[in-house]
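Example for tutorial group B:
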């Protein structure tokens, strides 16, 4: 079975390739060039200026491979500046129609490993609720709590690293 984003392209191509209108379009026949009359020859005109180059179209912006939402130490509350990241994740889901969005919570290494695992799961679930509130069906998610086991920035145990206190959103 084809993935949804590509199915419409294949249907469109098949429709265009096999459409009766495309098959019935007559091929233009070239008209022979007139034979020059040497008696009526005029001096050579100046060459026509080169046409302006076609405007280069900017390539479509590539969707990021992942988005990250950062948290304060020991907290699972969404920070005010992170709302736009949640909105972007919602738009990317609607535009790309991924099969699954993976929401992975993580922490820095301050505190016990068990507490950090629970906090990472809580952060992932908070982000899940926010994305569902933005219209993404709950059955399109996979939630993962990683605790302190997958730091964005490797640190010594007990180091408060803000970039490790995150939820990462990926899709496939």
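The residue assignment follows.
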């Amino acid at each position: 079975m084809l993935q949804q984003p590509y199915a419409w392209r294949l249907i469109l191509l098949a429709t265009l390739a096999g459409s009766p209108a495309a098959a019935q379009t007559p091929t233009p026949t070239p008209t022979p060039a007139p034979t020059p009359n040497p008696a009526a020859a005029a001096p050579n005109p100046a060459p026509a200026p080169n046409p302006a180059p076609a405007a280069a179209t900017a390539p479509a912006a590539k969707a990021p491979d992942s988005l990250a939402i950062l948290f304060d130490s020991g907290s699972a509350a969404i920070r005010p500046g992170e709302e736009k990241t949640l909105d972007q994740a919602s738009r990317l889901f609607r535009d790309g129609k991924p099969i699954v969005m993976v929401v992975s919570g993580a922490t820095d290494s301050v505190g016990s490993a068990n507490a950090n695992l629970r906090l990472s799961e809580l952060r992932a679930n908070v982000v899940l609720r926010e994305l569902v509130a933005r219209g993404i069906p709950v059955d399109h998610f996979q939630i993962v709590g990683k605790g302190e086991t997958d730091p964005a920035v490797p640190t010594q145990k007990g180091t408060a690293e803000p970039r490790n206190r995150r939820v990462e959103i990926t899709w496939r």
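The CA atoms of residues 5 and 97 lie 7 Å apart. Compare this with the pattern of hydrophobic and polar residues in the output above.
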